[in-house]
Design a protein that fits this description.
The chain is 28% helix and 26% strand. The protein contains eight helices and 20 strands. The longest helix has 19 residues, at 279-297. The two termini are 25 Å apart.
């Protein structure tokens, strides 16, 4: 077990923003994890589990505790369509291998950033599909009491961009068993995957550091009648939700800058780090958007990204 001190967090997030962690460690196996739990018990410090860093904003003040970065990289395709995958496997790698081998059920996630653990934690989704659709069970460890538990799908309490693990941060995901179909039409699956990747490149500001969608989309039943009417006229309602990007653009906030952060002109629900932005720059933009939406539509936006202080 190696615990480093004063490690910059910028390089560990897709936003490229953040100060130093007081302590930082990479965990490769359960034995090392047990040592880390003992370290936490002995030092009485807070901790944060860091995956791919694609949906996180760290404070420029850093993190006064231990950042734990798991490296659980199991990757085992079974003939019945089940796949056992370590939480630290990158989503692009998982999607590509599944499609290449003819396993159907993940092609919609082409271009989805981050690692599997984070995707499970936030029930990542796009194009009408979500991670919960393929999860069978999740193996996890409680960092407070060392309990090892297998969570069945229903025990994961999946909901829109959320799960049991998002609100119970002491549970570190080790691996998951997912269910895919043995389609064998790998060319078709790879084609769909690549179409999704191209869509993201064309519609999302992937050329700049960012943390993905900043805000959750708006359930219709929580929107005001005037917002619903506007969204219907513009034909932007998707399923049971109104895209927050539409609302931000409607309010004329695309391209708004504070410091080195900017509301993307390519996709209004993205904030980009275009010029060495500080965490405060991003937070100020988030507050600006929330205030404007609240004033115009009496609607409280909820962040999809996690803000870590």
């Amino acid at each position: 077990m190696l615990i480093l001190e004063r490690v910059s967090l910028k390089k560990f997030t897709t936003f490229k923003i953040g100060g130093e962690a007081k302590f930082f460690t990479i965990v490769n196996n359960l034995k090392e994890l047990e040592q880390i739990i003992n370290f936490l018990e002995n030092n009485k410090i807070k901790f944060f589990i860091l995956g791919g860093g694609s949906n996180i904003l760290f404070s420029d003040k850093g993190f006064d505790g231990l950042i734990i970065k798991p490296k659980f990289e199991t990757f085992n395709f079974l003939e019945n369509g089940e796949v056992i995958i370590g939480s630290s496997r990158l989503m692009p790698e998982i999607v590509y291998e599944a499609c290449r081998l003819g396993y159907q059920g993940l092609e919609w996630a082409g271009g989805l950033p981050g690692e599997l653990g984070g995707a499970i934690r936030g029930n990542a989704g796009c194009f009408g599909s979500e991670i919960k659709d393929i999860i069978k069970e999740v193996l996890s460890v409680n960092l407070l009491n060392k309990e090892i538990r297998i969570f069945k799908k229903e025990e994961c309490q999946f909901s829109y961009r959320s799960s049991f693990f998002k609100f119970n941060k002491e549970w570190l995901i080790i691996e998951a068993k997912i269910n895919l179909k043995t389609n064998n039409e790998s060319n078709i699956l790879l084609k769909i995957m690549n179409e999704k990747i191209e869509y993201r490149k064309n519609r999302h500001p992937v050329e700049f550091p960012n943390a993905g969608s900043i805000f959750k989309n708006i359930p219709i039943d929580s929107a005001s009648p005037d917002l619903i009417e506007i969204a219907k006229k513009k034909n932007v309602i998707k399923g049971d939700k109104i895209p927050t990007a539409f609302i931000i653009e409607y309010l004329g906030l695309k391209g708004k800058e504070i410091g080195g952060a900017k509301i993307s002109e390519k996709h209004a629900n993205y904030i980009i780090n275009f010029n060495n932005a500080s965490s405060q720059d991003v937070l100020d933009l988030i507050d600006l958007v929330k205030d404007e939406v609240q004033k115009k539509f009496n609607l409280k936006l909820i962040e999809e990204i996690e803000i870590v202080n």
